[in-house]
Amino acid sequence: MTCASPEHPAPGGLFVPPIAVPLRTIGGRRFDFSRQIAVMAIINRTPDSFYDRGRTFALDRAVAAAVQAVLDGADWVDIGGVPFAPGPELPLAEELRRVVPVVEALAAESDVVISVDTFRSEVAEAAIAAGASVINDTTGIHDPRLADVVADSSATLVITHSRAEPRKPFPRPQYLDVAGEIAAFLSARIDFALSRGIPEERLIVDPGHDLNKNTAQTLELSRRLPEVAALGFPVLAAMSNKDFIGETLGRDKADRLAGSLAAASASVLLGARIVRMHDVVASVDAMRMLEGILGWRDPVHAVHNV
Q1: Fewer CB atoms inside 10 Å of the end CB: C or N, the chain?
Q2: Residue 60 class from Cβ within 10 Å (0-12 exposed, 13-18 middle, 19+ buried)?
């Protein structure tokens, strides 16, 4: 499919991002991000995650949820041991204890892409050794050594826009040009990652919906997502059940599925190729339906009026 620019979208309003390396081997799976949407499931091994509030904190529950996500069709499972939200520092040994056993157990069960949500180079190194093939750093490579760890492996790095120190508050964020500033930040961090030896085919960008941004800023970022996709890297949209959805709709966390699916679908039409979602079954169906509408996949059955 022909690439389009933010100023000149493809017919039908679809923005087709000019991904420099759309064909990716990540872990044991192959993706073509020129015509494929990956669904990333979320496993939080934390007692205080913003959405599930400890539902998968116990090791057996975390592993079971990860395996179920694969059975439900997830392409990717993201495992985290520390919330993004401000809070006290978690000891390194505790983060390792939370994350590594889940990675090991899932890697033994499946070839699904496993990512670990961490900003610590030590955790990244241990997670990769345990079977993770992606490091999902929500701090924009706050720890420079994390880039070195990824460079020395075959893992992929997700570079996310955020402005706060890890686990520190960032009250009343201000932007003169929210999407432009985010794209510039990501471009600079991409250059840094490349300078540390991570090849472009192992980089993904995430504009950080809600991360150090208020609802109005996140909505504008969402509208202007093509400016981020135009950087030429696959875009991860992590927006499931976030506060900008709740505030836009006036919905509590338990009632944000419809808004999350709408936001994820819009993000794909505006250039995202990976969506990070809590409800795997509904999200997989929504993304596969989008692929069908866009002509990227054939129906499972095609007997109606045949």
Answers
A1: C
A2: exposed
